[in-house]
Design brief:
Layout lengths: L13 E5 L2 H4 L12 H7 L20 H11 L3 E5 L2 H4 L9 H16 L3 E7 L5 H7 L7 H16 L5 E6 L1 H9 L11 H25 L4 E7 L3 E3 L4 H24 L4 H10 L7 H9 L5 E4 L4 E4 L9 H10 L20 E3 L15 H15 L3 E5 L16 H20 L3 E7 L18 E3 L11 E3 L1 H11 L6
Parallel strand pairs: 1-2, 1-11, 2-3, 3-4, 4-5, 5-7, 6-8, 7-10, 10-11
Antiparallel strand pairs: 8-9, 12-13
Helix pairs in contact: 7-9, 8-9, 9-12, 14-15
Bound molecules: 6-O-phosphono-beta-D-glucopyranose.
GO molecular function, one term: beta-glucosidase activity
InterPro entries: GH, GH_1_N_CS, Glyco_hydro_1, Glyco_hydro_1_AS
Pfam families: Glyco_hydro_1
Length: 486
């Protein structure tokens, strides 16, 4: 750190925490809710850790008052949550389910009564199952009018109460996990289909942003992207070039479209040469250019390190398996996906300077500053950190959870965010992942992120009691002092 003194956080900085509908709500068939692709996927044997599902999750649907009361006591300034599309429109495109809307209205009202700014994510991966079956989900352009109707419903219902909106959560993660690594629904391993679906989602994103600007002129909207800076393993120019390539494949491919309305030239050319580029019409180009996000949501967990492919073949099988099975942010092609143009261009490797979490995710607070700097400098949009946190096994001992390791992790990241602000990055807020313990998509209830412990595990829902962890009280202090102690 090269500053004598860091700038303070602005007065209205939004200290928040985040969640997603499928991971917390439960009540998966209540009050008219339709099924989502995750409801089906998690019920199929072998797809999730110990067969865990979101059927009950942490039962937030029935405990929303208690959960918001804990947020208020903590002093939270913002709460990011997602809406389950199939709760609001059970079949994805037909009649609106008023009971579903009423749940979110209740949540938003409770938040506002407690001066907590709601941050609403429109899509956090739980596509209505009916749309998957009818249109092949994001595989067909026919889904776009359904998404537009869903957005219109939410914009009309909540335009006066919700200022900050997120369109898609981590489009890079859910398209690659769903269409490439077959670890999320629709469980496909086809790179061409991944790029095709991704393009359709880009069109849906642009459509939503334009509609929003028409209907909610005083609000702000943007996508949340899972960003990780890419480092070269060494100063070998070949490794540096590998990092430039990886940055295009892992970051620019999405961010350039969101923020500049066009695909990066180099990568598009590679995909075209390999015959796996999406079909982009002239109308598509006009639409993508027309939609401008007001801010960019950044989810930061870690970056990635790459080297040139000296052997002209992917890294050893065991290492790849490890990466793709546990870490959606590392998009290292497997041997059986050798048709991907990435294979000769870069290989993901471990960074020798960084420690890892129990799940093998690198802990890299400096990378957070690098990320914020890179993205802000390139796109000049205000940034909103919509996720950042540590997944760990937490132990309840004598009714308490001493998660000092989480406090250390968060404190380091908040500090580097403060440094990035001092560097000149414009930031709206920071939502830690997650407010309470939640269902991890693929790691059940074992991998915990919350400030609030939820007394349940993979085998039993127990009593679902909420128990604030040590990190809860630490964050409470941090918010009270607006981060001045960091
Ligand atoms: C992000 C998602 O990718 O990472 C969250 O937006 C998710 O929904 C979080 O829970 C942590 O992932 P995991 O696999 O550790 O639960």
């Amino acid at each position: 750190m090269y500053y004598q003194k860091l700038d303070e956080f602005q007065k209205n900085f939004l200290w928040g925490a985040a969640s997603a509908a499928y991971q917390i709500e439960g009540a998966y068939q209540e009050d008219g809710k339709g099924l989502s692709i995750w409801d089906e996927y998690a019920h199929q044997p072998g797809n999730t850790f110990k067969g865990t599902t979101g059927d009950v999750a942490i039962d937030h649907y029935h405990r929303v008052e208690e959960d918001v009361a804990l947020m208020a006591k903590m002093g939270l300034k913002a709460y990011r949550f997602s809406v389950a599309w199939s709760r609001v429109i059970p079949d994805g495109e037909g009649d609106v389910n008023e009971a579903g809307l009423a749940f979110y209205r209740k949540l938003i009202t409770l938040l506002k009564q407690n001066q907590i700014e709601p941050v609403l994510t429109i899509y956090h991966w739980d596509l209505p199952l009916a749309l998957q079956k009818k249109y092949n989900g994001w595989g067909s352009r026919e889904i776009i009018p359904a998404f537009e109707k869903y957005c219109r419903t939410l914009f009309s219902a909540f335009k006066d109460d919700v200022k900050y909106w997120v369109t898609f959560n981590e489009q890079n993660v859910f398209t690659s996990m769903g269409y490439r690594w077959a670890q999320h629904p629709p469980k496909v391993t086809d790179i061409k289909r991944m790029y095709a679906a991704n393009h359709i989602i880009n069109l849906a994103n642009a459509t939503a942003i334009n509609l929003f600007h028409e209907l909610v002129p005083n609000g702000q909207i943007g996508p949340s992207f899972g960003y990780g800076p890419v480092y070269p393993l060494t100063g070998d120019p070949n490794d540096v070039l590998a990092a430039v390539n990886a940055n295009d494949f892992n970051n620019n491919w999405w961010l350039d479209v969101y923020c500049r309305g066009e695909y990066p030239y180099f990568m598009l050319k590679q995909l075209q040469k390999a015959g796996i580029a999406p079909e982009i019409t002239a109308d598509d180009q006009v639409l993508l250019k027309s939609a401008k996000p007001d801010f960019l949501g950044i989810n930061y967990y870690h970056g990635g390190t790459v080297q040139t492919n000296r052997l002209q073949k992917p890294v050893k099988e065991a290492e790849q398996k490890d990466f793709s099975a546990t870490d959606p942010y590392l998009m290292q092609p497997k041997a059986d996906q050798a048709q991907s143009p990435e294979v000769p261009m870069f290989n993901s490797v471990s960074n020798p300077y960084l420690d890892k979490t129990a799940w093998g995710w690198e802990i890299d607070p400096v990378g957070f500053r690098v990320a914020l700097r890179q993205v802000y400098e390139k796109y000049r949009l205000p940034l909103f950190v919509t996720e950042n946190g540590l997944g760990a096994v937490d132990e309840l001992v004598d009714g308490k959870v001493d998660d000092q390791y989480r406090i250390d992790y968060l404190a380091q990241h908040v500090k580097t965010m403060k440094e990035a602000i001092t560097d000149g990055v414009e930031m709206i807020g920071y939502c830690a992942w997650s407010f309470s313990d939640i269902l991890s998509w693929l790691n059940g209830y074992k991998k915990r992120y919350g400030f609030v412990y939820v007394n349940r595990d993979d085998d039993s829902q127990k009593d679902l009691k909420r128990i604030p962890k040590a990190s809860y009280y630490w964050y409470q202090q941090l918010i009270a002092q607006n981060g001045a102690q960091i």
